[in-house]
Amino acid sequence: MKYFFHLEDGACIRDPKGDEFPDDAAAMHEAAKVAQDLSTLKVHAFEWRVVVKNADGLRIGSVALNPALATYNQGVPAVH
């Protein structure tokens, strides 16, 4: 089944193509990996979530980004 991984913080950055996964659990596992990867970027991670929807548009779940994983660049902390 196809799943879409949208990035939301009140606004939404939509995943236009999606990816195939065997089931909801596999899609949520991928969402957790995506959220962890995105958490290392310099973004305002406190409100961002990776929202998983299936091909029917039903929300399967979401995973919050973890601002504690934000990277530091040349001694300047990431903006939160």
Characterise this structure.
With about 80 residues, the protein is α+β, with helices and mostly antiparallel strands. It has one helix and five strands. It has one helix at about 25-40, and strands at about 1-10, 10-15, 20, 50-55, 60-65. Strands 1, 2, 3, 4 and 5 form a five-stranded antiparallel beta sheet that branches. A hairpin with a 3-residue loop joins strand 1 (about 1-10) and strand 2. The longest helix has 16 residues, at about 25-40. It is globular.
Q: What layout of secondary structure does this protein have?
A:
Layout: E1 2-8, E2 12-13, E3 19-20, H1 24-39, E4 49-54, E5 59-64
Antiparallel strand pairs: 1-2, 1-3, 1-4, 4-5
**Structural class by secondary-structure content:** alpha+beta
Q: What Rg do the Cα atoms give? A: 13 Å
Beta-strand residue fraction: 25-35%
What best-fitting shape do the alpha-carbon axes yield? Answer: globular
Mean pLDDT: 83
How many β-strand stretches? 5
Task: Describe this structure in a few short sentences.
The protein has one helix at residues 24-39, and strands at 2-8, 12-13, 19-20, 49-54, 59-64. By secondary structure, the chain is α+β, with helices and mostly antiparallel strands.
